[in-house]
Design brief:
The chain is mostly helical and about 100 residues long. It has one domain. It is built from three helices and no strands. Helix 1 crosses helix 2 and helix 1 runs antiparallel to helix 3. It is elongated. The chain starts with a helix and ends with a helix.
């Protein structure tokens, strides 16, 4: 019985860790995109293009949440909110998974 509980606990801890890594990576791409936009990175560069592509898919419903006139502020606010939501949701889900374990 102890072995089964230990295995279950390890499984949920691993799952929680994977959730934290995934949410952290999502937030990282969003923050990188904010930085690239803020400093006016060359959109034709392959790295910038890749980060932009990933971030634009991750921003999800937050893309046009606020629409200030300045495009850099728009990216900072909307993509920043999305990054925070990913981090908070990841922590909450990870804690719930660890409780299940």
């Amino acid at each position: 019985m102890t072995y089964a509980v230990s295995g279950r606990s390890r499984f949920f801890n691993l799952l929680a860790t994977l959730v934290l890594i995934a949410s952290g990576l999502a937030a990282l791409f969003l923050v990188l995109f904010i930085i690239l936009v803020a400093f006016g990175a060359n959109p034709h560069n392959e790295v910038v293009h890749f980060v932009s592509y990933v971030a634009r898919h991750l921003v999800w419903i937050f893309r046009d949440l606020f629409t200030p006139k300045n495009p850099k502020v728009r990216v900072l606010v909307n993509y920043g909110i999305a990054a925070i939501v990913y981090l908070v949701a990841g922590v909450i889900i990870a804690r719930l998974l660890r409780l299940l374990g």
